[in-house]
Specification:
By secondary structure, the protein is mainly alpha-helical. The protein has ten helices and no strands. The longest helix has 32 residues, at 96-127. The relative contact order is 0.23. This is Probable membrane transporter protein. Its main location: membrane.
């Protein structure tokens, strides 16, 4: 009973956070681990559960999505697919024990990226850093998508930071594209996880609908929340708490 409530609540809240600012995996991954899923399975299941939320929030932003910078939209989507596949393949090669040892460090990396991402974007704009060319753009997108296929935590803010490096400036477009690419690389990664039997289906069937509902609500809220800094601060505090908890366990 308590595990069911925990999974549903974590999924709904994560869908909202992913649509607004990212960081939903800071809730879903620990919830699945604490509900009894092995770490690699919990990571795969959290990625699957986030997918409907990415799709619903991406659909809500569909009129804003467009490519900026050196690469056309199809090339950007291809980079996300390739990176997601590589990341999922890397996860399949990682034993549970090794992944468990890496989890606190992955959460720490995601927390730092989430906290520092907005400042990086602001600094890039302030300094007028020239947009990256096709080669660097491709490498950056594949690299961050590989991370997303391996461990979903902090993916959204990492994508936004890369968009800033690539010369994107339309914030609503960036948010929509972030959700679209998150969905694309997650579809590729999840197909790999399913083929390998990594998904905890009872947990996924509970969490995915909750994440979908949260994702659509989050996309609606994203255009109406006046104080994003306060929300981001709260998410950062949650991620710090989760990181410390995993270092101590």
């Amino acid at each position: 009973m308590y595990s069911t409530v925990l999974i549903l609540a974590a999924g709904f809240a994560a869908g909202i956070l992913n649509a607004i600012a990212g960081g939903g995996t800071f809730l879903t991954f620990p919830a699945l681990v604490w509900a009894g899923a092995p770490p690699v399975s919990a990571n795969a299941t959290a990625t699957l559960s986030a997918l409907p939320g990415y799709l619903s929030s991406g659909w809500a932003f569909r009129h804003h999505i467009r490519a900026e910078g050196a690469l056309p939209l199809k090339a950007v989507m291809l980079c996300a697919s390739l990176g997601g596949l590589l990341g999922a393949g890397l996860l399949l090669l990682t034993p549970d024990k090794a992944f468990s040892a890496m989890v606190p460090w992955l959460l720490l990396l995601a927390t730092v990226a989430f906290a520092a991402g907005p400042y990086l974007l602001t600094e890039l704009r302030r300094r007028g850093v020239p947009a990256a060319g096709p080669t660097i753009s491709t490498a950056a997108l594949v690299a961050v998508s590989l991370y997303g296929g391996y461990f979903n935590g902090g993916l959204g803010i990492m994508l936004l930071a890369v968009f800033g490096l690539l010369g994107f400036s339309d914030l609503h477009g960036m948010n929509g594209l972030k959700n679209l690419l998150s969905a694309i690389l997650s579809i590729v990664a999840v197909a790999t996880y399913i083929a390998a039997g990594l998904i905890s289906w009872p947990a996924a069937l509970l969490m995915a609908p909750a994440t979908t509902a949260g994702g659509y609500l989050g996309a609606w809220l994203a255009r109406r929340i006046p104080n994003m800094q306060l929300l981001r601060g709260c998410i950062t505090a949650i991620s710090v708490a989760m990181t410390v908890a995993f270092f101590l366990t």
